[in-house]
Amino acid sequence: MQFKRTATALVLLTVAGCGTSTGAAQQPPAPGYPVTISNCGKDVTFQRPPSRTVVMNGGSVAEVSTLVALGLGDRVVANSQSYGASDEPGRAEAIAKLPTGGIKLNDQMDIPREAMLGQRPDFVLATYSGGFDGSRGFATREDLSAIGANAYVPAKMCGTGGTQTVEDSYAMLRDLGKVYGVSDRAERLVEDSKRRISQVEARVKDKPKPKVMLIIPGMDMGAGDFSSVGAQGIWNDLIARAGGVNAFADSAPQLFANLSKEQLAAAQIDAVIIVNYQNPDPNASATKLYDQFPQWAAAKAKRHVVLSDSIYFGPNNATAVERIAALLHPVQ
């Protein structure tokens, strides 16, 4: 997709940001700065905490949720991430109140190049490295650097592969804590999460490991009858820490498995995680599954939990671990 570049040329000439661009006028570093983080194989240096942050969509809510958890919502000038629900009280409402910058998203439901540069950002967060792919109509890292803006992608999403774990959520908390000069806040969140998860792990340590299916009802991710069943994702780590195992972890090398009705019917499913993504009645979605597969132990026991953002990469994984463990191993 190609975009006209006239407005961009004007932006490049007039905008001075606060990143590390050689073309923008440099100001003395703020107290405690400069700070440098490593991201996607590059050292990224900040002369001061960002004040004009833009958050790209990418089908994620992790980046904006991390900013809100760190108390940095006032640094956001344009956010395009939202699930409309959260497992943390008040989180969805706080995200909904953030400015969107009046941006019209492109056909990939993300921020096109011209609109991005028009926001005059000093820091841009993308969900994956493709968020800075110029061939897809996005502003590149070089475009952003030219106006004094830095760019960030979560480490496992830099194109190097590997399945995310809760440690990746902690890494982003620490990275953004360092970038914004709130490392103490980030460390408190990390330590609280570790404490809560450790308590769950100790409680379920010697218990049987039920087989769990994670599904996003209504989301079409492929050609299979059931194309939104979780395969390789951070949820495998969270389910394991909660004392279970993903029944379909080995069914596909990617995030989601494309499964037939027959494959689900033949599987042992002891419990179900319904992921609430813009779902008006997630419990009804569970009931529909139980009607289709009454032979499951999960169906016979009506054993499911509804989760939204905590089951994904982000700052709230301890909530998912606690709630899955309560489902699989209820406290007597």
From TrEMBL:
Keywords: Signal. It holds the Pfam family Peripla_BP_2. SUPFAM superfamilies: Helical backbone' metal receptor. InterPro entries: ABC_Transporter_SBP, ABC_transptr_periplasmic_BD. It comes from the Bacteria. The keyword Signal applies. Residues 55-332 form the Fe/B12 periplasmic-binding domain. Coiled coil: none annotated. Residues 1-24 form the signal peptide. Belongs to the bacterial solute-binding protein 8 family. This is ABC transporter substrate-binding protein. It comes from Allokutzneria multivorans.
